[in-house]
Amino acid sequence: MASNTNLTREVAIKLIRMQEVICPNCGKDKLVSRYRYKKQNVEHICPACKEVYHPTKLI
Known about the structure:
It is globular, with a radius of gyration of 10 Å. The longest helix has 8 residues. The protein is about 20% helix and about 10% strand. A three-stranded antiparallel beta sheet has the order 1-2-3, with no helix packed on it. By secondary structure, the protein is an alpha+beta fold.
């Protein structure tokens, strides 16, 4: 489970607006939506390090 310690308010807002964001944990890949079929801006995952982010919980 993600702790969102590397996620800032600005990054969370970008994720909610579906803008491209580089993973703050590893910096290797862009964060993508975890789900393709429901609430696509609720959870995001990094394909490289598999860290899950919840931007709506931060705001």
